[in-house]
Known about the structure:
- The complex is a heterodimer.
- Chain A contains nine helices and no strands.
- Chain A is mostly helical.
- Chain B has one domain (47-206).
- Chain B has helices at residues 3-13, 22-28, 36-61, 63-72, 75-102, 109-148, 160-206.
- In chain B, helix 3 packs across helix 4 (63-72), helix 3 (36-61) packs antiparallel against helix 5 and helix 6 runs antiparallel to helix 7 (160-206).
- At the A-B interface, helix 1, helix 2, helix 3, helix 6 and helix 7 of A face helix 1, helix 2, helix 3, helix 6 and helix 7 of B.
Amino acid sequence: MNRELEHSFVELLEKHQNIVHKVCRLYTNNYDAHNDLFQEITIQLWKAYPKFRGDAKFSTWMYRVGLNTAITLYRKSKRSIKTQDFENVQFKIKAEDYDDTEEQQLKVLYKAVHQLNDIEKALVFLYLEDKDYREISETLGISEVNARVKMNRIKNKLRTILNP
Amino acid sequence: MDELDLLKKDWNKQPDEKKLSIKDIYPMLHKKSSSIVKTLFYISIAELVFWILINTIPYVTSPQYKERLNFILSEQMVTALTIFSYAIILLFIYLLYKSYKTVSVTDNAKKLMKSIINTRKIIRYYVIYNLVMIFISSALALVYSINHDPNLENISKFTDKQLAIFTIVSILIIGAFMLIIWLFYKLIYGFLLKRLNRNYKELEKLEV
């Protein structure tokens, strides 16, 4: 029974692993930290899996567990601290970085998103994943109105970061 | 088009980052978690053991301590106090167990944070309880020693003013010792839960 459960879980995770990778990409700055967070999210997903009932989509359930792990449960390991935080150096945005070409704009935008705080990142992540405000509010435990208000503030904040 | 829509367009275009095979994922299930809930759990167990030892070791290992305690308090009092302290320990174990059971990674972010903060509060109450008990018993032991301990007979030659100063200084020293332990806890939990507290405040701020 346990083997079957394990097998079905690993198959599902393998299929939807990109969701976890995206969370890791948003919340970590380097390769080691990315792997570390991926590992922790996997453990949390696996621990919670026996209680997973098929009434929610596996992917929807993954968003919640993934974000909860990244925002709340994850404790940076020593391994990831030792690695040089190269992004901190890279992510300082200068006004001259902001260029009209779309590619350049995107690069700067990703940098700007990395400068947001944990909660703002979670909102941006769910927004980018095309989740509606109802789902965003349910995942974070805030009201739908406040999720909307916060999202608008984040958009303004990004605009300010991009056009200092 | 606003900035985030531009980002969304690109985000959805990104190719699947399929890095891990089924074979890679299997061993990951059995690795040890390093989540703050697990750390908090170990700390709470350590707290329980630490304070149980602090309260029990002198009584078990030192016959003089036991003798003196039995001299100050009647046997019934000692038994009553022992039962009381173990009842409190059991109560805290029960509360902690109940609290840990409510921590669920599948709750919404705010509820999850709240349940972790509640668990941490129970540990804090346990620490406060122990510190208060130690403070009270140290103060009582001090007063008793001043009045009855033959080793402190010099004290009987003190004037009232000297005695008052001696008592105040002793209580201050005990207080300072308690304060150091308290700050030590603040430091441990502050460090462990810094990020959680910050994120919880951020979510709270949204609801104002």
